[in-house]
């Protein structure tokens, strides 16, 4: 079967990650990957130029990609090919026509995707969700991203916001969430709240401390795991996924986080067979966003945007 | 286009409802419907005979059905064609081979479905969910049933338990639920809790009292609506449905229940466009279960169970 190549870019507030993928039918492999500082303070044009330069470098060899997918940390309009709201990037990234601007620079089809849905695509096709028909994913980072897969497809919803599992309400009068609600999963399990619960400055430190036996950190991860477990339980009764994939820095804690999740799910779910549910760590680490963006971009391989056709 | 006819039976603890449907392609209509007491105390054989008699009556005219679907209030094994656990029927209904037993009596294909998923199929094809790609449904009855529709299909999950939205946790240390968990939607919104919240004996009385201006009943329905609203909000961020359909006796309260639901959803959902979400009452009333069972049964129209082929 013929191979095709697809570049994925993961636009973060700090770093711009990229992954070059090869596809043969449904089999995907990672050819190369890397990252460079986003440099968002230099302005959107400079960032777009930097993204175009990465595409140019990837296109220099024999393995030139045919499509580009861009994962963005927030909301976008798939039809118009624009961002709509990226809370952690400068305001000029609101309503920025990324598909047209980057497409013009690189001369190939460009497609946008939310970074958490990109995580889901990556884990589904190349990672911990391989072979799943129904899957849910949580990405514990600065915020808490989510994704759901139903019948083998990432569920984007009408506007790409399907699967925002971090904004389930877990405690109606709970702590305020950045979204405006109270008691969302994100209000308990975003990076600063994990660090605070563990008595550390960052989730990464919390993981190190817990592994070294620090009881405050271990108890903190267990509390976070219980909240995450309630969210997993709610997804379990809603969708009966075969696998729930937990990613983000704190997932490095492994069973120090996942065993409390599993215990909470066992405590709460009695209406479906839990023997059919695995709760597992993500496999692709910080590269999932770029990889998933590449997978998403590939699905327009046969489409030429109107801006490119003119 | 040729028409085919399909019978649906809704096996309740008290009543056995039936609906005779006609299908032309994707267009469904209801030819006739009715109910008879289940008579569960006379034993499962008597109930199966009664079900077979209903099929016989429906088959007497020119409009004879070609398939039978049976909605059951609980768990079943689709592959084996047996019930597995029906909490409100006598214990002999556990592991009862309904497909084989009823199929033998009526000589046509029989298929099982959970009654809440049948509600979803009915509202999707013939009711308030017509034309939806993504939909969620809640049925507020003795318990609280649920159903989700993704990409135009009811999501059954691996064992038919997909969509159990009544068993989302809304308050981690909330009141005990019949399922074994605490703080499920069902623990707030099942019939006896609705009646208690409204100072009446039944949800139907609560609706009448609230309509007559009784302030306790109005406030009770508003509290129930708020809990239901949290559950709707969680489904909204997970699946971004176009429509959420609320059924069951208390849905007769209309906006006395639904306005508090909508207000709670507006308070909680900030990560997807609520202009795309309608929260509406079900349209098919107590007949949804029988109608949806008929729709589900029709999907085996071309299949002859092995017991019938021999």
Give the topology, please.
2 copies of one chain form a homodimer.
Chain A: E1 4-11, E2 15-24, E3 27-37, H1 44-59, E4 67-72, E5 75-77, E6 82-85, H2 98-106, E7 110-114, H3 115-126, E8 135-140, E9 144-150, E10 153-154, H4 185-189, H5 191-198, H6 203-211, H7 215-239, E11 243-247, H8 255-268, E12 278-281, H9 288-298, H10 306-309
Parallel strand pairs in A: 1-4, 4-7, 8-11, 11-12
Antiparallel strand pairs in A: 1-2, 2-3, 5-6, 8-9, 9-10
Helix pairs in contact in A: 1-2, 3-9, 5-6, 5-7, 6-7, 7-8
Using only C-alpha atoms, the radius of gyration of chain A works out to 19 Å
| Estimated helix fraction of chain A | 25-40%
Give the chain pair forming the largest contact, with residue counts: A-B, 41 and 41 residues
Give, in spatial order, the strands making up the sheet with the most strands of chain A.
Answer: 3-2-1-4-7
Give the end-to-end Cα distance of chain A, rounded to a whole number of Å. 32 Å
Q: Average pLDDT of chain A, to the nearest integer?
A: 94
What portion of the residues of chain A fall into strands of 2 or more residues?
A: 15-25%
Query: What is the oligomeric state here?
Result: homodimer
Number of strands of chain A: 12
H and E order of chain A: EEEHEEEHEHEEEHHHHEHEHH
Parts with pLDDT < 50 across at least 5 consecutive residues of chain A: 301-310
Number of helices of chain A: 10
Largest β sheet strand count, sense and barrel closure of chain A:
5 strands, mixed
């Amino acid at each position: 079967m013929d191979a095709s190549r697809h570049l994925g870019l993961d636009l973060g507030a700090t770093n711009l990650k990229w992954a070059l993928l090869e596809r043969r039918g449904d089999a995907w492999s990672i050819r190369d990957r890397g990252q460079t500082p986003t440099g968002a303070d230099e302005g959107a044009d400079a960032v777009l130029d930097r993204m175009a330069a990465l595409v140019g470098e990837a296109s220099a060899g024999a393995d030139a990609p045919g499509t580009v997918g861009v994962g963005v940390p927030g909301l976008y309009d798939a039809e118009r090919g624009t961002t709509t709201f990226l809370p952690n990037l400068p305001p000029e990234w609101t309503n920025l026509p990324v598909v047209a601007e980057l497409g013009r620079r690189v001369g190939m089809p460009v497609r946008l995707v939310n970074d958490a849905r990109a995580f889901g695509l990556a884990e589904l096709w190349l990672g911990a969700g391989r072979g799943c028909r129904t899957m849910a994913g949580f990405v514990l980072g600065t915020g808490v991203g989510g994704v759901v897969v139903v019948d083998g497809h990432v569920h984007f919803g009408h506007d790409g916001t399907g699967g925002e599992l971090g904004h389930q309400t877990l405690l109606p009068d709970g702590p305020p969430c950045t979204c405006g609600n109270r008691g969302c999963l994100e209000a308990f399990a975003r990076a600063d709240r994990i660090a605070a619960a563990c008595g550390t400055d960052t989730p990464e430190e919390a993981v190190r401390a817990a592994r070294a036996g620090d009881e405050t950190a271990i108890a903190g991860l267990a509390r976070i795991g219980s909240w995450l477990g309630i969210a997993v339980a709610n997804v379990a009764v809603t969708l009966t996924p075969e696998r729930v994939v937990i990613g983000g820095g704190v997932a490095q804690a492994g069973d120090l986080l996942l065993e409390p999740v599993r215990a909470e799910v066992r405590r709460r779910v009695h209406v479906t067979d839990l023997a059919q549910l695995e709760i597992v760590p993500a496999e692709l680490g910080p590269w999932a966003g770029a990889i998933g963006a590449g997978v998403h971009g590939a699905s327009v391989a046969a489409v030429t945007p109107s801006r490119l056709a003119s």
